[in-house]
Amino acid sequence: MTTAPSRRDRRISPVFLGIAAVMAVTGWAVWTDFASDARIAVFLFVTSAWVVSLCLHEYAHARTALHSGDISIGAKGYLTLNPLKYTHALLSIVLPVVFVIMGGIGLPGGAVFIERSRIRGRWRHSLISAAGPLTNLLFAVVCTAPFWLGLLDGVPLLFRFALAFLALLQVTAAILNFLPVPGLDGYGVIEPWLSRKVRAQVEPFAPFGLIAVFGILFIPEVNVAFFDGIDAILSGLGISDLETYCGQSFYRFWTTRDELCQSFVS
Predict the structure, then answer these.
(1) Which UniProt keywords apply (predicted)?
(2) pLDDT per residue over 183-220, tens digit each?
(3) Which of the ends of the chain has fewer CB neighbours closer than 10 A, N or C?
(4) pTM over 0.85
């Protein structure tokens, strides 16, 4: 018989604390220009911060499911924020990081297994699905707030660039995850309100939804239109496309240095 989560089930994992520590240390290195190679410091800072947001994304799903009736969540380790406890480590952590490296797109993958039969009420099912991307939206607010509140005067440009790129990842994650595509959280929000027949017809396509979205974004016209929209949103929040461009340029330490971006921090 499944019991409610114990204190041990809720204890924050050392794995998550380690990732958060990497984020803090490399963020400090970017801020102070302490690292011998600034681009590696930016890469580690943004990647670790991105993984932290992935963990919080999945935690939000799990925590909402717990309060909606699925008390099996605790025994599965989802409340510890440990990414190694997720159902599909490849989809949950590795693939989203690869997406960032390849295209600068923030796209979390499905991870926590929720026993939906324990959940009663369509609104609760929808809220469980919405909780993840809403967390990315909150993370995006935190990342963009220093820009639209004018709090970055005197902040090192390298840190500003890195924060701008991290903000771009969170905004894209929130938007893409809310798409009503099978396999993404946006579809999970509307699924409880669809007929049983429609759900049965759509279900076979769910494993391919994530890959399909990423593939469509590789179409040049779609990619340009999508990122023009993202740039417009970020611009409205006080982040210029130059800042996100330079943030991504410094992040991609394995490529040739961009002289324009380098000139700003030299």
Answers:
(1) Cell membrane, Hydrolase, Membrane, Metal-binding, Metalloprotease, Protease, Transmembrane, Transmembrane helix, Zinc
(2) 899 999 999 999 999 999 998 888 788 778 878 888 99
(3) N
(4) yes
The band of 90, judged by pLDDT with boundaries at 50, 70 and 90, is low
- Sign of the torsion angle spanned by Cα atoms 248, 254, 255, 258: positive
The question of whether 58 is a catalytic residue gets the answer: yes
The token pair that represents 61 in the structure block: 């799903």
Whether the Cβ atoms of residue 131 and residue 186 lie closer than 8 Å to each other:
no
Residues 6+ apart with CB under 8 A from 249: 161, 255, 257, 258, 261
Distance CA 255, CA 266 (A): 18
